[in-house]
Write a structure and sequence with these properties.
- The chain has 174 residues and is an alpha+beta fold.
- The protein has helices at residues 49-63, 79-89, 99-105, 110-118, 149-160, 169-173, and strands at 13-17, 20-27, 30-37, 97-98, 131-132.
- The strands form 2 sheets. A 3-stranded antiparallel sheet has the order 1-2-3, with helices on one face.
- A hairpin with a 2-residue loop joins β1 (13-17) and β2 (20-27).
- The longest helix has 15 residues, at 49-63.
- The chain is globular and about 40 Å long.
- 36% of the residues are buried.
Length: 174
């Protein structure tokens, strides 16, 4: 699903961030999902303490790219997806990997890594924005529209985290 399709979804909170908005889902004491939403999406006050904690941590990350998230996550997905998501968490801030590099590391293929990135339920906690195509920015959150909202989010996140190619864009995206 795209970020636009998620706009009608029930979230425990929706917070405005420098790159748009983010919807946070919670249930049973864990964060169940996070979705990038357009900045025009109305904010929604946190419905519970965990949603409040998630909002505070997202804001802290936007203030400091070195912020370390500490949220209980409902890690669902196949064994392969969870391996990909763990590999994403091991990419240092300010660096990127290609889908092919991750595929080689996981003894898989780039397309499968891309699909696992697309289904990542916890961006930016599981930083799929740090994965690129071999010769391009690649896709992000199910979109490859180079002028689209989600790739704008990816550019902002990369610049925020100090990726040299995108640092100059930080000021223009705020």
């Amino acid at each position: 699903m795209t970020e636009i399709q998620q706009a009608g979804k029930d979230f425990a909170a929706i917070v405005h961030l420098p790159f748009g908005a983010m919807g946070v889902g919670t249930a049973g004491g864990v964060v169940t999902e996070m979705f990038y939403l357009p900045g025009t999406t109305p904010e929604q006050a946190p419905a519970n303490a965990l949603a409040e904690k998630a909002v505070q941590q997202l804001l802290a990350y936007c203030d400091d790219a070195d912020y370390v998230f500490d949220l209980p996550l409902a890690m669902r997905g196949s064994e392969f997806q969870r391996r990909v998501w763990q590999s994403l968490r091991e990419i240092p801030r300010g660096q990127v990997r290609t889908y092919g590099e991750l595929a080689k590391h996981l003894d898989s293929v780039a397309r499968a890594v891309g699909q696992a990135c697309r289904t990542n339920p916890f961006p930016p906690l599981v930083p799929c924005h740090r994965v690129m195509g071999a010769n391009s920015l690649g896709g992000f959150a199910g979109s490859d529209d180079q002028n689209g909202f989600t790739l704008g989010v990816k550019r902002w996140l990369l610049a925020h985290e100090g990726h040299k190619e995108y640092q100059w864009q930080q000021a223009t995206l705020l």
